Amino acid sequence: MKVVEEKKAYGLATTIAMIVGVVIGSGIYFKVDDILNYAGGNVGLGMTIIALGSFAIVFGSLSISELAIRHSEAGGIFYYYAHYIHPGLATALGIFTAYVYLPTVVAVVTWVAAIFTLGTQSSLEAQVLLAALYLFVLTVLNIFSKWLAGYFQSLSTLIKVIPLIAIALVGLFWQGDFPQAPAITPVAVGWGWLSGLVPLYFAYDGWTVVASIAPEIKNPKKNLARAFIFGPMAILALYLLFFYGLNRILGPDYILMAGNDAVVHATELIYGKTISKILLLVIIIAVLGVSNGMLLGTMRLPQAFAQLGWIKNPKFAKLNLKYQLSIPASLSVVAVAYIWLAVHYLVSKFNLLPGSDISEIAIVFNNLSFVFLYIIVLRLYRKGIIKNKLTGLIAPLLAILSALILLLGGLLTNFKTVTFFLLFCLLFCLAAFAYYQKNQREKG
C-alpha cells in the first residue's frame, strides 16, 4: 500500500498564529461581563480569575509541549492517548472531540460572529441563518484552498489584536469619566467567583487543536513546542490588558449593564461611530478566524482517526491528493456542526441553559480529559525520560489542579444542569469506546 506523504504547509509563525487565532477572537469580547458578574463587580478579582484561568492553557501547553517534541504523528493529542495508555481511550475522546466538543464550539462561535454582524437586537432566527452561511463559506475555504485558509488564519490573527490593543492601551491612560450607569457595589461572592472560570475557559479554549495538524507543520518537533509556549503567554498578557483597559474606560457598573455590547460602546466612546464600525468589522473577522482555525483542525481529525484504524471507514481514511484531506471525513464534521447549531438554536430559543450555552459543558469535560495527558507527562518525568522539572513536574501538577478547579466552578453555576450534560459527555465517550471494541472484535 502506497503511503501518501503530506505537504509541510505551516511554519512557526503560522502555528503560533493558529493558537492565538483560535483562542482569541470571540470569548474575550462577550464574556467580560460574565466574568465581572461572577467576581461581584470587583475588577481585581476579575483579573485574578483571568490569571488563574490561564494556568490551564499556560501550564497545560508547557506539559503537552513535552509530548509534542517526541511525537508529530497524525491524530495529535489523541495519538498520545493511544501510544501511552490505550487506543480505546484515544478513540472515545477523539470521536467526542471531533463530533461533540469542537463542533459545539464552532457552532457557538459562528453564531457570535453573526450577532456582531447583525447586532444584538436582531432575531435569533436571523443570527442562526447567518451563522449557517458563515459555516458554509469557511467549509468551502478549508476544503478547496488550504493555502487560502491558512492565509486567512494568519491575517485574522494579525488584525484581531487591534481592538484588544486599541482598548487596552487607551484604557491604561484613560482619564475620562465613566458613562452613566446604575451604581453596583462590589459584593462578597464567596467561592462563587470560581464559576467565572467557566465562561473564561471559553475565551481560552481551543489551543490543543493545533496538535492535530502536527504532520503539516515544518520541523514539528521544534516549532510545535515553541508555539505551545509562546502563544499562551501572549494571550494572557493581552487578556489582562484588555480587561483592565475596558474597566478603566467604561467602569464595572456600565459593563454589567451593557453586557455583550460593552466593547462596542467602548470603541464608540473612544473613537467615534465611524472608526467604531471599522473596529467592529475587525472583531467580526477575528471571531470568524476562531471558527476557521477550529474548523481547519477539526476537519482533519476523522481522517487521521480512520487512518489509524480508530474509525472503520475506508472513505474517511483516503487522503485526497489535490486537497490534502479527506473530503467525506471533513464534511462529516461540518454536518455535525450544523446539527449542533440547530441544537444551540433550540436551547437559546427556550432558554434551557440560562447564562450559558451548549459548548461550555463540553469545554469543562474536555479539560478534565486532559488530566490523562498530564499524568502521562508526570510518568515520563518520574522515569527520567523528561528531564525538565518545570515542564515535566510543576506544569502538569498545576494543570491538573486547574482542571479540577474548573470542574468545581462549573458545578457551582448550576449543579443539576451541568451534571446532566457532563453525564451526556461521559455516556457519549463510553458509546465511542464500545464502538472501538466492536471494531476490534470484528478484526479479531
From TrEMBL:
<feature type="transmembrane region" description="Helical">
    <location>
        <begin position="89"/>
        <end position="114"/>
    </location>
</feature>
<feature type="transmembrane region" description="Helical">
    <location>
        <begin position="44"/>
        <end position="69"/>
    </location>
</feature>
<feature type="transmembrane region" description="Helical">
    <location>
        <begin position="418"/>
        <end position="436"/>
    </location>
</feature>
<keyword id="KW-0472">Membrane</keyword>
<feature type="transmembrane region" description="Helical">
    <location>
        <begin position="181"/>
        <end position="204"/>
    </location>
</feature>
<dbReference type="Pfam" id="PF13520">
    <property type="entry name" value="AA_permease_2"/>
</dbReference>
<feature type="transmembrane region" description="Helical">
    <location>
        <begin position="278"/>
        <end position="302"/>
    </location>
</feature>
<dbReference type="GO" id="GO:0016020">
    <property type="term" value="C:membrane"/>
</dbReference>
<dbReference type="GO" id="GO:0015179">
    <property type="term" value="F:L-amino acid transmembrane transporter activity"/>
</dbReference>
<feature type="transmembrane region" description="Helical">
    <location>
        <begin position="361"/>
        <end position="381"/>
    </location>
</feature>
<keyword id="KW-1133">Transmembrane helix</keyword>
<keyword id="KW-0812">Transmembrane</keyword>
<feature type="transmembrane region" description="Helical">
    <location>
        <begin position="323"/>
        <end position="341"/>
    </location>
</feature>
<feature type="transmembrane region" description="Helical">
    <location>
        <begin position="126"/>
        <end position="145"/>
    </location>
</feature>
<feature type="transmembrane region" description="Helical">
    <location>
        <begin position="393"/>
        <end position="412"/>
    </location>
</feature>
<dbReference type="InterPro" id="IPR002293">
    <property type="entry name" value="AA/rel_permease1"/>
</dbReference>
<protein>
    <submittedName>
        <fullName>Amino acid permease</fullName>
    </submittedName>
</protein>
<feature type="transmembrane region" description="Helical">
    <location>
        <begin position="224"/>
        <end position="246"/>
    </location>
</feature>
<dbReference type="InterPro" id="IPR050598">
    <property type="entry name" value="AminoAcid_Transporter"/>
</dbReference>
<feature type="transmembrane region" description="Helical">
    <location>
        <begin position="12"/>
        <end position="32"/>
    </location>
</feature>
<feature type="transmembrane region" description="Helical">
    <location>
        <begin position="157"/>
        <end position="175"/>
    </location>
</feature>
